Amino acid sequence: MTRPREGTTMMLSGKRALVFAADERLAETVARHLGRLGAQVWVSGLDTEAVEALAEKIHADGGEAHPATVDPSDPHHVREYVSAVAAKGPVDVCFNGFELPAHSSGVGVPYRDLDPALLVEALGEVIGAQFLTAREAARVMVPAGRGSIVTVASTNGSSGRPHTGALGAVAGALEALARSMATEYGPSGVRVNHVRATRLSTGPMYYENALGRPVTVDEVAGAVAWLSSEASGGVTGQVIEVSGGEHGLSEAVAARGPRKERHVELDLP
User: Fold this and answer.
1) How far apart are CA 190 and CA 183, in angstroms?
2) Average per-residue pLDDT in the chain?
3) Which residue(s) pair with 64 in the sheet?
4) How far apart, in whole angstroms, are the C-alpha atoms of residue 245 and residue 247?
5) What gap in Å lies between CA 152 and CA 165, rounded to an integer?
6) Three-state secondary-structure class, residue 57
7) Which of the pair, 101 or 132, is modelled with greater confidence?
8) How deeply is 269 buried, as exposed, middle or buried, from its count of CB atoms within 10 A (0-12, 13-18, 19+)?
9) 154 closest CA partner among 47, 265, 247
10) Where are the alpha helices (DSSP H) in the chain?
11) What are phi and psi of 173, to 5 degrees?
């Protein structure tokens, strides 16, 4: 991540953003992007030390951050937290990076052997947390007549890959939730969009794509930052894919053969 040059107008100046699950890698990167672009960022998660360390990084980047310990799946905790932030000023952006580890999502298990309880639990945990934070953000954004809510999940919601456990169902449900919320909240000036990404904090990353290289966490975070800004003011109810062209490949790219599943670790500063 590069710091904007001094004297430049940052596209999120004056914005106040909530970033939930900021103790996870993707949300941490999103928070740092928002801070570097001028937003005041409220970072929260279950790991108190992690979110406090993140706030220090954002301060070191020249931004402003406020850490808090928040369980994104607790309705009362989320409402109290969002209300407390909103009491001191408008909430312009809400992003929740909560996700399940691949090992707890049934990845690699054929559906014929997948425990239905695991699927139901995963859907309830992830969709529930994303719904709660989006709902509470919308509750304070609607009266203000503005705001941007961004959800995120993997490309498994549209890929049709086998043996992805609950990941595909979770991702597809989040896309549908974003579209429905966008239609409901749009007349009040609140936008809701979804980022479909190949690079999340955990799990496999598929990078046999049109670019022929891995998609980075920074690139995913950049898309979230754009959706959080006025530059995307006419965009709502959309699924923005950051996959390097993983779907809809040209014949030339498709001719390279079937995509391989690879896992790549990328270190961030």
Assistant:
1) 9
2) 85
3) 40
4) 5
5) 18
6) helix
7) 132
8) exposed
9) 247
10) 25-36, 48-60, 75-86, 116-144, 156-159, 167-185, 217-228, 251-254
11) -65, -40
